[in-house]
Amino acid sequence: MNKKLHAAIVLIAAVAGFGLSNALFTVDETQYAIVLQFGQPVSTKTVPGLHVKMPFIQNVIYLDNRLMEYDMASTIIYTKDKKNMVVDAYVRWRVKEPLAFYTRFKSDSSYSIVEEAKRRLGDVIIGVLKSELGLHDMSDIISQSRNTVMERVNDESNKKLAEEGATLGLEVVDVRIKKADLPAENQLSVYERMKTERNQQATKYRSEGEMKGRLIRAEADRKRAEIIAEANRKSQEIRGQADAEAASVYSEAYGLDPEFYAFVRSLESYQKAFQDKSTLVISAPETMEYLEYFGREKTAP
User: How far apart are CA 63 and CA 59, in angstroms?
Assistant: First the structure.
């Protein structure tokens, strides 16, 4: 009898312990908990700590309450000028209303719920991208005005998702464009066209530079000619003044002593005429007027 009683007590304790462990669950600071009864949500636990549920007939699904990021697949978007571009975007989001979130994306596991939410986010954001980028030419999207276009895309995406935020049970924190490029088959032709345009622009700049260079050189040559002409004019004036002063000096010297003046001038002429070291033989120099002072002996008075 004692053995049977002991076994019963052990069995009851085991069942009670198992039931108690099944009735208790914990909620982490990074989680929301939704209590389900026969697949239907009956309560939501958002406060971290230990909680109680009905054992065996209720189960718990956990949702992450932290900021999550969804990197969407690349999509082709057609621009206003009928060009196609490959756009990569991502969204940062979090669960705000866990019950509404579960109800909208109801599934058997929290992983499937999050994946369904990501697909819905991707559909909304891609739709906004297509409608917004379709209003702009490709050159605006890939040029310096790209930032402005992307800001509008971000604003419109947030606005669209905010409209559905109450029923989706989530909050969109940020939408960004990582990359907006041409498809691989179009990149080569576009790059070649851009290269041709840049070469044409470079040729234009070179031509303008050469033309300005010729103008600058012509102006410099003109100024150089003017400076040289002015210098020659001034040098001629100076030479003329010097010759006039020299003639005046010579004239004054001649007036004082014509004989001595003629002698000095003849000596200067001899120095210039006979500066070579070669030998010169002259017969009867006294018969030549030019050499009248050449070799003349001074006679006593």
Answer: 14
